[in-house]
Amino acid sequence: MVHWKSLILKGRHVELTVVMPCLNEAETVEVCVRKALACMEQHGIEGEVLIADNGSTDGSQQLARDAGARVVHVDAKGYGNALMGGIRAARGKFVIMGDADDSYDFTALLPFVEQLRDGADLVMGNRFKGGIAPGAMPPLHRYLGNPVLSFIGRLFFPSAIGDFHCGLRGFRRDSILKLHLQTGGMEFASEMVVRSTLSGLDVREVPTTLSPDGRSRPPHLRSWRDGWRHLRFLLLYSPKWLFFYPGVAMMIIGLVAGTLLTFGPVEIGELAFDVDTLVGSSALVVIGFQAALFALFTKVYAAEEGFLPESPRIRKIIDIVTLEKGLVVGGLLALAGVVGLVMSLVHWQVRSFGELDPRESLRLVVPSATALIMSFQTIFAALFVSILGIRRTRETPVDHVAAVAEEAAQAVTREESPA
């Protein structure tokens, strides 16, 4: 049975769609729907409530319809998949999403709508500013999980959002659809903020409240599993923090220590550092250099595939560091490595090719081997970045229209030509 309000909305301009993901929320879905509809009616907002059902077996769908909501079924399991299914099916210009567990206040949607009307693309709720009722959020989430992950999000990305994981948020439907969000689980919440920020959308924040949910069963959220998924997403979308900064730090430590140890042992108090530490320093340099290269690879690949916006800085680096220059640098490093190995052979010859003192020989062999390894890394990296930088030709709508027009012109010419 289709609710009469849904029939009326089909012929009207819908400004707002309230999307609620749902998986067995029979205890609370009805009250959430009624609160959202009452709020829209109170403030004169033309809107609808849409339940994105993810396979409920407790009758949640019919309860939602009876309360006045429209229900769409989303086959793909997961929080993010359910929300994206609801966002695609929404009829409103604006969308406000919120959990159907009665923990968010659906009677206080007006601040989100006002910000959206004012031009915001994404309006986040902030539970820490609006108020968290006793028992509404586990201490682990309140004092560790959410603050730490939100801090990492602000550190990794140019965002001022204080509550990355608030489930009550509003946005322009077209703006979010253009982002082509990919994640299907709980990390969808982080992806929306990160991708919006990286794409330069207007992201704002309003205080909201959080109350204990009205369900008698445990929530779908799993603290450690879903917390890790959020952290993993933040790391994977920030090659600088995942690869570049750690890599540069390791290279600096390795180069400084290796340079000092090449000329002899280093003593700090009662500690003596010698060729064993030199080998470790060499490993740090190689690993750090590889990590920095992976940051470059990731940035180029992600930009080419549309996962991350193209970085003018990375594009400039690619334009400057050409394949030919990479081959030259790699060749020079290889030459330095070969020269070092030749010197080590000369050193061995001086000893009549007999037994060597590792504390002397390794000071020549280790830096030489390191230079050779980095030479091949540089050459292979230059080749790989050149491959990644090959831009594929994509047919644009203009190209398609031009092709259709050309075909039409050819058809007219054939018809006008004499048989």
Structural topology:
Blueprint: H1 4-10, E1 16-22, H2 29-42, E2 47-53, H3 60-67, E3 70-73, H4 79-89, E4 94-97, H5 110-117, E5 122-126, H6 127-130, H7 139-156, E6 169-172, H8 173-177, H9 188-198, E7 203-207, H10 223-236, H11 239-262, E8 266-268, E9 271-273, H12 275-305, H13 312-320, H14 323-350, H15 358-388, H16 397-416
Parallel strand pairs: 1-2, 1-4, 2-3, 5-7
Antiparallel strand pairs: 4-6, 5-6, 8-9
Write up what this structure looks like.
Residues 17-176 form the Glycosyltransferase 2-like domain. It holds the Pfam family GT2_TM_C. One of its GO terms (molecular function) is undecaprenyl-phosphate 4-deoxy-4-formamido-L-arabinose transferase activity. Keywords: Glycosyltransferase, Membrane, Transferase, Transmembrane, Transmembrane helix. This is Undecaprenyl-phosphate 4-deoxy-4-formamido-L-arabinose transferase. With 419 residues, the protein is of the alpha/beta class. The protein folds into two domains: 4-236, Spore Coat Polysaccharide Biosynthesis Protein SpsA, Chain A (Alpha-Beta Complex); 239-388, no CATH class. 58% of the residues lie in helices and 10% in strands. It has 16 helices and nine strands. The strands form two sheets. A seven-stranded mixed β-sheet has the order 3-2-1-4-6-5-7. Helix 3 (60-67) links the parallel strand 2 (47-53) and strand 3 (70-73). The radius of gyration is 30 Å and the shape is elongated. The chain starts with a helix and ends with a helix. The relative contact order is 0.08. Mean pLDDT is 85; it is low at 1-9.
